[in-house]
Amino acid sequence: MELTIGDVAKRFGAVEALRGVSLTVNSGEFYAILGPSGAGKTTLLRIIAGIEKPDSGHILIGGRDLSDIPVRARNTAMVFQTFALYPHLSTFENLAYPLREARVPRDEIKRRVGEIAEMLRLTHTLARKPGTLSGGEQQRCAIGRALIRRPQLLLLDEPLTNLDAKLRHDTRAEFKRLHRELKTTTIVYATPDQLEALSMGARVGVLKHGRIVQVGTPADLYTGPGDDFVASLVGDPPINLVTGTLREGNGGQSIDLPFLGLDAAPWRKALTGFPAGTKLKVGLRPQGIWPRGSSETGPGFPAKVFLTEPLGDVTILDIVAGGDTRLRMVLPQEQAYKIAVDDPIECAVDLQQICLFAQDTGTAIHRSGAEAAA
Ligand SMILES: Nc1ncnc2c1ncn2[C@@H]1O[C@H](COP(=O)(O)OP(=O)(O)O)[C@@H](O)[C@H]1O
Ligand SMILES: [Mg+2]
């Protein structure tokens, strides 16, 4: 079921929760809405679900205007961040509830509850009440209840936020599998967690202060962030943003960072027309800063290790360069195990992974995914 949202606005008193949101979700697509708390995610999903009315704009589901589709025929289900199950009912009865309400015959209820329990690995819990289920089982039960009426559009509002880290990881994989098995169900998944959005969404729409600021595949957003907000939101650990100044010399333009002068030749095209003295925000991915002397090389600078955070397979290093610029870098464990706090470290930057943003607006001048013009 295709979903089209056209110029939807919604205000609560003085708060503009949504400001002209437009997007299209393809039939059967897994579409993630990524945005920090307060961005308008819940409001948008509630409007799509028909629980809330927009002040203006339109919503088309399968080509029909939402307001023309009777509530009973909407075929949309929503799962909320806090999933309310009926505590006095068993898993079976919780799953069966929407079907009983719809007066589905007893035999069919039994069959469909069995099917959905199987799909969500809840069969062993059918006789038990929610209080005796694990957090993940309760969540799957809530999702089962949303799925049992076979919605063509499934709206998920931060469904993993209240689960612990391990369970979130497992459930992410579970959602992808579920989406494959459901085949035709269109899913809109709202989350403040970039990892969830990028790992599950075929496309991700980034919501900021009630506006969609960028739509793209996970790779698009990572390599080609449209502004510094998206650049900071996508990628883990977050991108380093350092102020640089454009200089003009005999040999052409360069970008002065507090700890390094970069020959600007690779970005010549993007920087055409910017006068000397222009301030830029330079984005350096933690994955694009290497210890010098490793196989890859690039322009180098000295730094000092400030913090180490070993994560098993990789270590995150916080370093200080050029006096007081803090940068993060990520090293494979085998390169990091000898490095200690306060050690000097020689670093190199990967020019391919640099993004440039305007200092004032944050708009991308050069995206790391774009062809360099050297
Ligand atoms: N019923 C409401 N009354 C007043 N303000 C609201 C209401 N619902 C949401 N808001 C405000 O609208 C903005 C967007 O909220 P919400 O859609 O819940 O964001 P998100 O789900 O991304 O955290 C917030 O500033 C929030 O405080
Ligand atoms: Mg919300």
Spell out the blueprint of helices and strands:
Elements: E1 3-12, E2 15-25, E3 30-34, H1 41-49, E4 56-61, E5 64-65, E6 76-79, H2 91-101, H3 106-119, H4 135-147, E7 153-157, H5 165-182, E8 186-191, H6 194-200, E9 203-208, E10 211-216, H7 218-223, H8 228-233, E11 240-249, E12 252-257, E13 260-263, H9 268-271, E14 279-284, E15 289-291, E16 300-310, E17 314-321, E18 325-332, H10 333-336, E19 344-349, E20 354-358, E21 364-366
Parallel strand pairs: 3-8, 3-9, 6-7, 7-8
Antiparallel strand pairs: 1-2, 1-4, 4-5, 9-10, 11-12, 11-14, 12-13, 14-20, 15-19, 16-17, 16-19, 17-18, 20-21
The site of magnesium ion (MG) has 3 residues, from helix 1.
Provide an overview of this structure.
The protein is built from 10 helices and 21 strands. By secondary structure, the chain is of the alpha+beta class. The protein folds into 2 domains: 3-233, P-loop containing nucleotide triphosphate hydrolases (Rossmann fold); 240-366, RNA polymerase II/Efflux pump adaptor protein, barrel-sandwich hybrid domain (OB fold (Dihydrolipoamide Acetyltransferase, E2P)), CATH 2.40.50.100. The strands form 4 sheets. It has a 6-stranded mixed sheet, with helices on both faces. The chain is globular, with a radius of gyration of 25 Å. The protein starts with a strand and ends in an 8-residue tail after the last strand. The structure holds adenosine-5'-diphosphate (ADP) and magnesium ion. Adenosine-5'-diphosphate (ADP) binds at residues 12, 15, 17, 35, 37-43.
